[in-house]
Fold this protein.
Amino acid sequence: MTISENMQGVAPKGSATPDRLPVGQLLAFTVAGFLAIMTENMPAGLLPQIGHGLGVSEAMAGQTVTLYALGSVVAAIPVIAATRSWNRRPLFLLAIAGLLIFNTITAVSAHYGLTFLARFIAGMAAGVVWGLVAGYARRLAPPHLQGRAMAIVGVGQPIALSLGVPLGAWLGELTDWRFVFWIMSALALLLLAWIRFGVHDFPGQAQHQRLPVGRVCAIRGIRPVLFVLFAWILAHNILYTYVAPFLGTTDASLRVDMILLVFGVASVVGIWGTSLLVDHRLRHVTLLVLAAFAGAALLLAFSHGSPIMVLAGVTIWGLTFGGAPTLLQTALADCAGNHADVAQSILVTVFNLAVAGGGLIGGLAMDKAGAASLPWIVLPLILLALAAAWQAESYGFRSGRRGA
């Protein structure tokens, strides 16, 4: 088998049959995504304990999340671009080892400077994980099931947000916040063994196959997908980051933890539904879920005093967001072809910029107009994403069966 064939998604002998997915191998990527999201968001549920343990304010402790995201932004594109010639499994192992080492340093550190440095480098490792996951997982799957493979890989993220982070926060209150990071280190150690002995390796790109990052961005379809990604994730994070103060404006008497659980469960259902349709109806599903997200924003905007409207809006929002990573990563990888890993590293960077932008814009909106204004700010962003996806029919979000 040639390198070119491998990059197109043809699985090596023994990794997948033409009609089956190597679920056991794909679940290793699911766990990697779960671990990366847990490592990123766990401090948010433990800010008082972390601040007390390091002798800093809660606001300063919250910067451990910011530094992690910045590490991903800084590392994703240059590291993935510089390691394109590497075999995929050693690079993946190195990234997971980075999470293991720097979560362990976080667990033992008593000095905030060392902890902040460890969080930044852990974020760099996570940026490499996210840059690798989509291209690597697709190459394990037969081409006509690559979208479904991405759905399996993506389920780790909402599980981490809806169940893992609250469970970790509960354990941190019962024991100590450092114990939670020890657990994540143990999970990383188990994952290293799983990948080394249970996941097939693939070669990197030969020198003559590589394109500069700028030329990868210029491939037709890449920029429309990235625009949809940025607008969609920006809108999502404006709402998600400030969901607690927004709920306080609705007079619906709903608890934040219950709302987040509803959102998380709906996200998992959304991934399942997307997995059934992404390989046959990628364009139609993308347009449908963006339109539904706009509808959810309207429900939330008019939900004052109505728990049913809030729950309906959050449920629809979760259903639409659950499939977003699968749809966007699949569309981008389809456009990028042999250059999927570099394209995914660009996606990681744009994604994290949208996360940071959501926090900034949402905070400014709350200061100027109050939390009740957030759905109205989100709505035009969703409509922009919908219009861009609609226009990208020939390149980006194409009609028909994937790979046809």
Residues 256-301 form the longest helix (46 residues). The chain is about 75% helix and 0% strand.
